[in-house]
């Protein structure tokens, strides 16, 4: 079986689209996705065009780079200016604007900032350069956090004292709860496929008990997403909300126990600030005291000016589904991928980037 | 040459430099213009319709499946001339070499340039060599300039494109960019991705013969097919609509792109030409391309449209429409 040809099969997608249109729902509904890769897939394959007009797909805070407040980037930039420091980061973070600069600009000014594909690369750099402090920028949800946790354990066991992580990892379920208590009407959730492969379907059961909300965990190909939407709309139509797994090839009830174990060994729960939402209790991950020598925030307690957001930037409203990208006055009008004002336009998983690069409803 | 590595003296203008030029370059590039080792090549051109271009080459790694920096330096300039509907004739090559660069590598590169020039039907008639200190350049940088004679009365330009014109490409796109990425990142895939690096002069002339009213051509290098399409209609009174299902792609390139979170439509090519021809010449152009060894997988991938002026739409395999826009720079990896 070839993954791409099976799950991107156009006949299958058309069949699912027809079945979704047949589900009896007599009112407009809004289904939110909370995963940047879903944002991109939906845009890339034009899936909204295959849905009936009464179903509105909205994007939530599913882009981990986008929901990271300016404060984190300002801190990373300040650390990059410390002598003999190497910052290692995933590519997305390079062009995100902080309060007054970006990693890309600081790199051009001479700071040692390197794009890596994984923490394995960052560990290699740390081993090769014992004279330099290597700081990895830990941004991401539960899909990514286990690999960062693992890198901290490896560094600890090797005595790699010059490796540390500036941690801004977040977890998704508390954000979903916060959204359900927010202003935006949400009739169903398209739940994140790879986060769920780590945390398991069980992690949403509490949400289901407290809020009767239609949910389906989805993969990322057209058939995956349309199949999950069919499930969600059917749940809504039958008034039988449930946590359904439409991505059984990757997601189980209990999740990935090894990944969860390493997360638990290295991180502990903390409160975290989400752009657009504010503080969400228990939604962040902090490095445990045992590994504090690999905690860059403790190793490099830099003082930074108070972080500022561009007052015209509406990323916060976009991340909570209050407005869509083309409703932001700066969209294409001062804020473009070439000259991003907010993170949503520059991240590979940002709603504005997806809309700019793939969608053009007004053309 | 006795030396095994490039030294500063090889760029000093003295006997060591002369030895380098004679033994590495001149004997490989030999022709009536370069053999005299004069300061300039004196050329008589048979037409005043001259196309002239220049390009710089800094690819890393220097050697990759399907090519090397030398082959690339000839093909890149030849293909710019071919896209301008001109027959490439003469090339100059300027080398900046890093102290410590292996002479055996330089020999390989020069041999590759000579072979590619012969295949392309061009002569390397002028050159220059400089050597910089270790660390001041990445092994070798090459700049080539090229002269060709335009074969068409009119100059190729996007302003000549009309709604209804057909858009063709000569084969699978994105291979070169992914060959480089896969080599750089040490990706081992089931089948090695090979760069499509090739000189397109002959293919271009086949297109011209079959479709004499060709409107516009461009080789799809950095930025890929999508960027060429966007550049073609930017600010124009026509749009472009392509069918995703018709765009030729190699499965290994697609797989590598999926792994790295990249889009093959934006991945570089070094042997692909996009040709826009009147609708009534499209079939003939397609047959001519497929009859050439560099166009066996040629396809008609779309048309110029009257609506959505200035924009490129892609009709996906699912029947939905998405836009193709110009990206701001190098594609970057995903975060999760």
CA-based gyration radius of chain B: 21 Å
- Main beta-sheet strand count, sense and barrel state of chain A: 5 strands, parallel
Radius of gyration of chain A from the CA trace? 21 Å
Integer average pLDDT of chain A: 94
State the end-to-end CA separation of chain B.
51 Å
Please count the helical segments of chain B.
Answer: 8
- Termini gap of chain A: 38 Å
What's a concise summary of this model?
Chain A is an alpha/beta fold and 363 residues long. Chain A has helices at 3-7, 10-22, 36-44, 64-67, 70-80, 103-108, 119-128, 145-158, 172-180, 193-199, 205-210, 222-237, 257-266, 296-299, 315-319, 343-346, 351-358; strands at 29-33, 55-59, 85-89, 112-115, 133-138, 163-167, 188-191, 214-217, 243-245, 267-274, 278-287.
What does this structure look like?
- The complex is a heterodimer of chains A (363) and B (336).
- Chain A is of the alpha/beta class and 363 residues long.
- Chain A is built from 17 helices and 11 strands.
- The mean pLDDT of chain A is 94.
- Chain B has 8 helices and 13 strands.
- Chain B has a 7-stranded mixed beta sheet with strand order 8-10-7-11-9-12-13, with helices on both faces.
- In chain B, α2 (69-83) runs parallel beside α3.
- Classes of the chains: A alpha/beta (363), B alpha+beta (336).
Topology:
The complex is a heterodimer of chains A (363) and B (336).
Chain A: H1 3-7, H2 10-22, E1 29-33, H3 36-44, E2 55-59, H4 64-67, H5 70-80, E3 85-89, H6 103-108, E4 112-115, H7 119-128, E5 133-138, H8 145-158, E6 163-167, H9 172-180, E7 188-191, H10 193-199, H11 205-210, E8 214-217, H12 222-237, E9 243-245, H13 257-266, E10 267-274, E11 278-287, H14 296-299, H15 315-319, H16 343-346, H17 351-358
Helix pairs in contact in A: 2-12, 3-17, 8-13
Chain B: H1 15-29, E1 50-57, E2 63-64, E3 67-68, H2 69-83, E4 86-98, H3 103-120, E5 123-132, E6 140-150, E7 166-169, H4 175-184, H5 201-210, E8 216-219, H6 224-233, E9 239-243, H7 251-260, E10 273-277, H8 282-290, E11 299-305, E12 312-315, E13 321-324
Parallel strand pairs in B: 4-5, 9-12
Antiparallel strand pairs in B: 1-6, 2-3, 4-6, 7-10, 7-11, 8-10, 9-11, 12-13
């Amino acid at each position: 079986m070839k993954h791409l040809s099976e799950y991107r099969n156009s006949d299958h997608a058309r069949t699912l689209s027809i079945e979704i249109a047949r589900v009896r729902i007599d009112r407009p509904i809004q289904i939110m996705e909370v995963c940047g890769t879903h944002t991109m897939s939906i845009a890339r394959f034009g899936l909204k065009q295959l849905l009936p007009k009464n179903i509105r797909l909205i994007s939530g805070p599913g882009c981990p780079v986008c929901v990271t407040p300016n404060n984190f980037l300002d801190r990373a930039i300040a650390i990059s200016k410390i002598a003999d420091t190497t910052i290692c980061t995933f590519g997305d973070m390079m062009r995100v604007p902080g309060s007054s600069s970006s990693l890309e600009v600081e790199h051009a000014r001479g700071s040692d900032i390197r794009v890596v594909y994984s923490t394995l690369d960052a560990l290699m750099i740390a081993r090769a350069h014992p004279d330099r402090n290597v700081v990895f920028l830990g941004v991401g949800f539960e899909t990514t956090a286990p690999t960062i946790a693992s890198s901290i354990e490896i560094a600890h066991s090797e005595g790699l004292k010059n490796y540390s992580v500036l941690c801004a990892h977040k977890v998704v379920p508390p954000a979903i709860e916060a959204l359900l208590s927010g202003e935006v009407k949400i009739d169903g959730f398209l739940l994140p496929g790879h986060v769920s492969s780590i945390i398991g379907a069980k992690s949403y059961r509490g949400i289901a008990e407290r809020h009767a909300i239609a949910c389906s965990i989805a993969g990322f190909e057209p058939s995956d997403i349309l199949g999950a939407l069919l499930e969600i709309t059917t749940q809504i139509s039958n008034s039988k909300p449930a946590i359904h797994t439409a991505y059984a090839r990757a997601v189980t009830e209990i999740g990935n126990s090894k990944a969860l174990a390493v997360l638990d060994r290295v991180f502990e729960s903390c409160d975290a600030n989400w752009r657009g939402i504010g503080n969400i209790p228990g939604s962040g991950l902090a490095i445990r005291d045992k590994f504090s020598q690999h905690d860059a925030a403790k190793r490099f307690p830099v003082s930074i000016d108070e972080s500022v957001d561009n007052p015209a930037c509406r990323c916060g409203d976009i991340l909570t589904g209050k407005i869509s990208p083309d409703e932001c006055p700066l969209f294409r009008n001062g804020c473009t991928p070439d000259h991003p004002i907010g993170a949503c336009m520059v991240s590979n998983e940002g709603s504005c980037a997806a809309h700019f690069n793939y969608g053009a409803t007004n053309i | 040459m006795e030396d095994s590595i490039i030294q500063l003296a090889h760029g000093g203008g003295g006997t060591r430099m002369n030895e380098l030029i004679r033994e590495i370059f001149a004997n490989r590039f030999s022709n009536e213009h370069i053999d005299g080792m004069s300061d300039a090549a004196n050329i008589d051109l048979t037409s005043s319709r001259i196309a002239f271009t220049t390009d710089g080459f800094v690819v890393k790694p220097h050697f990759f499946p399907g090519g090397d920096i030398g082959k690339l330096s000839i093909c890149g300039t030849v293909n710019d001339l071919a896209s301008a509907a001109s027959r490439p004739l003469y090339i100059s090559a300027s080398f900046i070499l890093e102290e410590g660069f292996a002479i055996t590598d330089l020999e390989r590169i020069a041999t590759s340039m000579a072979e590619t020039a012969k295949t392309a039907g061009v002569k390397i008639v002028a050159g220059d060599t400089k050597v910089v200190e270790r660390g001041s350049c990445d092994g070798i940088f090459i700049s080539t300039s090229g002269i060709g004679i335009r074969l068409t009365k009119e100059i190729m330009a996007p302003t000549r494109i009309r709604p209804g014109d057909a858009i063709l490409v000569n084969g699978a796109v994105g291979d070169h960019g992914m060959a480089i990425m896969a080599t750089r990142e040490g990706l081992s895939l089931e089948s090695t991705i090979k760069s499509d690096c090739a000189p397109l002069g002959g293919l271009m002339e086949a297109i011209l013969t079959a479709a004499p009213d060709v409107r516009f051509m461009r080789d799809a290098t950095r930025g890929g097919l999508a960027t060429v399409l966007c550049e073609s209609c930017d600010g124009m009174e026509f749009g472009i609509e392509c069918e995703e299902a018709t765009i030729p792609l190699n499965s290994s390139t697609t797989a590598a792109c999926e792994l790295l979170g990249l889009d093959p439509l934006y991945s570089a090519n070094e042997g692909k030409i996009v040709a826009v021809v009147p609708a009534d010449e499209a079939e003939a152009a397609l047959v001519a391309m497929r009859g050439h060894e560099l166009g066996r997988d040629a396809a008609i991938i779309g048309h110029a449209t009257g609506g959505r002026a200035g924009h490129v739409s892609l009709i996906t395999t699912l029947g939905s429409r998405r836009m193709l826009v110009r990206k701001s720079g190098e594609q970057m990896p995903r975060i999760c």
